[in-house]
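Components:
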Amino acid sequence: MAEPGGPRTRTNTGPGRLLIAVYLLFAIAASSRAALQIATRFDEAPLAYLLSALAAMVYIVAAVGLARAGHTGRRIALACCALELVGVVVVGAVSLARPDLFPDETVWSGFGSGYGYIPLVLPVLGLAWLRHTRRQGAGRGTVATPGG
Amino acid sequence: MSSAATTVGSPVDGTLAGAVIVLSLLVAGWALVVALRHRPPDRIQLIGLAGLELLLLGLVLVTAVALAGGERPGEPGTFFGYLVTLVCLPPLAVVLARMEPTRWGSAIVCAVCLVTPVVVIRLQQTWQVLGG
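Structure:
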């Protein structure tokens, strides 16, 4: 009934699909926000807005990587999640230490506090999920249904 | 139903927006229960999402009436961005739930229904004229 069909361990089923859904939501949120900010008031905070755009792109690519679920997709998702984690930590730290550099908020300012810290949790979950599916695939050769 | 809407300046602050938030949270709660019981998205979730979509379309209608009456949101770009996003959320949940007929489909419905009230509140904030 809930048995995955293929022999490969997939990043795009089960909890992975939930992860992709959340990534999609963030991709929409970040990209529309960045597009609007860049279109209407780019001069006010160019660094913040470019960072928003970068974050948006990373979310989109990560969602695609997870959804593609092949070796390439996995590698892309891994790179994106790592970049996100570095981004949210560095931007979070800098935005607290030097608020003058960020006159307007980005998705990653204050470690994602404006978005319920989900930007901080998301890459960790992504990396954990990639790790989990890889280990499962390497260990069994066939897919085991995730227990709970 | 629209008795409160006339006294309040913002078209997205009335009973309708409240109903969206309440229904959304109810569907989220139910979806969570279903997910915890290892069940795929059920009929109740789909009906709930359909109801939510109807309420959101109602919100669009109320907003259109207010716009026709000469009222304007404080931050038009952001406001309409949120409004379009809102209307897209329940269909997105349905599509993703259909793709994932496991407990994780219910978890997706739960996640989307938790995001919806947040977007509604942001929508309300962008109608008001604010300094920043």
